Amino acid sequence: MHQTLAAKRVLITQADAFMGPALCEVFAEQGAQLIANADSPAAPGAAERIVAEAGPIDVLVVNLALAAPTTPAIEVDDDEWRAVFAALVDPLPRLVRTAARGMVARGGGRILVVGSASALRGMKRASTYSAARGAQLAYVQAAGVELAPQNVQLNAIAQNFVDNPTYFPPEVQANPRFQARLAREVPLGRLVSAREDALFAAYLCSDAAACFVGQVFPVCGGWVTR
């Protein structure tokens, strides 16, 4: 890959968390004119403001981060449920519809959601987080088929066991129990590197990936396949 995003104006949300730093580095290498926004899009009106302040964009990368609760399912209360959905689900349609309107008016664009494979495989003590990430993927599949005829491709990466500071910080990676889990559950036998994931994201946002519509791509070292 070389300069696959040359001259593309790319907005990345929550650029300081989750996959944001790696995405910014790789997208810049690929020639993107980067708008890296670190504001939370959760508050009413915030998502619309973030997109408006970015100006005309060719690509939107919806990177939404939240420390995953580990509450047993029977102990999850309404406050936790609402807080997780407010952070991970509610901003998504606001970001997409605001960006997509401009893209349609300008003839097309790309939207990529950085989601989680926790929505594709059951995990203990992750019911709230997995449900919210699952809602993201369902939205991508439905909205993706609506937007495609207007030349806006909406897709998602569903990742897990990808090196990033939000979910796999150094102290987690150094834990022997985590290392044993990695060896036991991930056929790849290691974390997917942040760069590997970001390069794939860059490809999906490039002109070369215009054929994908409402697709969910697992990036998880074989932890889940579909």
Question: What can you tell me about this protein's structure?
Answer:
By secondary structure, the protein is α/β, with parallel strands linked by helices. Helices cover 41% and strands 15% of the residues. The protein has helices at residues 20-29, 46-54, 78-88, 91-106, 127-147, 170-173, 176-185, 194-204; strands at residues 9-12, 33-36, 59-63, 109-116, 152-159, 216-219. The protein has a six-stranded parallel β-sheet, sandwiched between helices.
Spell out the helices and strands N to C.
EHEHEHHEHEHHHE
Largest sheet: 6 strands, parallel
Helix content: 40-55%
Major sheet strand order: 2-1-3-4-5-6
Terminus-to-terminus distance: 26 Å
Number of E strands: 6
| Backbone shape | globular
How big a fraction of the residues is strand? Answer: 5-15%
Oligomer: single chain
Question: How many helix segments?
Answer: 8
Low-confidence runs (pLDDT<50, min 5 residues)? none
- The rounded Rg comes to 17 Å
Secondary-structure class: alpha/beta
Q: Averaged pLDDT, please?
A: 97
